[in-house]
Amino acid sequence: MRLAFLGTPGPAVASLRALVEAGHEVAIVITRPDRRRGRGNELSASPVKVAALDLGLLVSHDLADLEGLDLERGVVVAYGALIEGSVLERLAMLNVHFSLLPRWRGAAPVERAILAGDEVTGVAVMSLEEALDTGPVHLERTLAVDEKSVSTLMHELAELGAKALLEVLSSPELLANPRAQVGEATYAKKLTSETFHLVPSMEPVMLLRIVRLERAFTLVNDRRLRILRAHATTSSSHDAGSMDVSNGTISLVSTNGAVALDEVHPEGSTPMAASSWWAGARLDGAVTRWS
Questions:
Q1: What does the radius of gyration of the chain's CA atoms come to, in whole angstroms?
Q2: Which of 63, 137, 231, 277 has its CA 20 to 30 A from that of 257?
Q3: pTM for this one?
Q4: By the 8 A CB rule, do 138 and 125 touch?
Q5: Residue of 146, 149, 103, 147 lying closest to 123 (CA atoms)
Q6: Between vectors from CA 107 to CA 105 and to CA 152, what angle results, nearest 5°?
Q7: What is the CATH number of the domain that holds 239?
Q8: Are residues 258 and 155 in the same domain?
Q9: DSSP string covering 164-220
Q10: pLDDT exceeds 70 at position 40
C-alpha cells in the first residue's frame, strides 16, 4: 500500500520500520520540525526523522506536502499536532493510539494509565477524525501494566501497535469495518513539571507510580533531588516530610507510610546509589526535610 507516515517521537519509529519491512511504500514522512536541545542549543531531528532518513525516505515538516501525492492512506503515530479536517477529507488516515479507547484520549495516555493504577492498557488502531481521538476502532490489543516503568511500557506498546497496524492494513475486513468507541471517555491531559514533584502529602503508592514515570523529583532541604528508583518499605514512625535513615536505607516518609530510595540524581552530580548520596551530602536525618 502507498502510504504517508506522520509521527515524531521514538515510540513511533517501530511502526515506521514495520511498514517498510512489510513491503508498504512509504511515499513521504511528515514529522515535527527540528528542535533546539542541550546546552549548545543545537537543532536536533526527531527520532522519526532520523529513522526515515536512515531508511532513505522522503521527509517533510509540512502537511501541505501531502498534496499532489498519489496516496492510498495515511498512518499517524504520535505526530504531536492536530490534523485539520480538510487534510483528512483528502486522505483517510489510521492512527495508532497507546490506550484502550475511549479511555485516555489525549496527549499522555501511557503516563496517565500508570498514575491511575490501571492494571491493563493497550493499543487502538482507529480511523482518524478531526476531534481528539474519537474515531472508530479497527483493532485493539491489550497489555498488562504491572509495575513497569514508562519507558518499558511505551516500548512494549510501540511494538504491539506496529503489529496491530500491519494486521489492519493486511485485512480488508478490518479496514472496512471499524466499530464505534464504547464506554466513558477519559482524557490524558498533558503532563507538567508539577506532575513529577513528590510531596509528603502523597500516599506511598502514588509516589512510586510517579517514580515509574522516570522524571520524579523532590526537594531535600530545598535542593532538588531526582528520584530514579525506589521501592515500598515498612511504615515509619517518623512524621510526613521527614527522612528515615536506618540500616543503610534512606526513606522518604509520607502520608501513611514511606518509600525507600534506591538510586538518585543530585543537582550538579551524576546518578548514584541513595546511600552514597546521603553519605556524601552529610545531612542530619534528625532535621532534614523533603518537600
A1: 22
A2: 277
A3: 0.94
A4: yes
A5: 103
A6: 100
A7: 3.10.25.10
A8: no
A9: HHHHHHT-HHHHH--B---S---EEPPP-GGGGB--TTS-HHHHHHHHTTT--EEEE
A10: no
Number of residues assigned to the chain: 291
Q: How far is CA 185 from the centre of its chain?
A: 19
Domain residue limits at 159: 2-96+126-137+146-176
Q: How far apart are alpha carbons 26 and 10 in whole angstroms? A: 18
* pLDDT for residue 34: 86
For residue 154, what is its C-alpha cell? Answer: 511505551
Largest CA distance in the chain: 70
Round to whole Å and give the CA distance between 204 and 143: 25
Q: Residues 94, 77, 40, CA angle at the centre, nearest 5°?
A: 155
Query: Does 70 fall in a domain?
Result: yes
Is residue 32 pLDDT above 90, yes or no? yes
Task: Return d(Cα 91, Cα 240) in angstroms, integer.
Answer: 56
Identify which of 8, 129, 134 has the alpha carbon closest to the alpha carbon of residue 61.
8
As to burial, measured by CB atoms within 10 angstroms (0-12 exposed, 13-18 middle, 19+ buried), residue 41 is: exposed
Mean pLDDT over residues 111-119, rounded? Answer: 98
Residue located via cell numbers 532538588? 224
Note whether 52 and 65 are within 8 A (CB).
Answer: no
User: Residue 39 carries which DSSP code?
Assistant: T
Q: What mean pLDDT comes out for the span 280-290?
A: 89
User: Among positive and negative, which fits the CA dihedral 8, 10, 261, 115?
Assistant: positive
Long-range contacts of 140-144 (CB under 8 A, 24+ apart): 140/100, 140/101, 140/164, 142/100, 144/119, 144/120
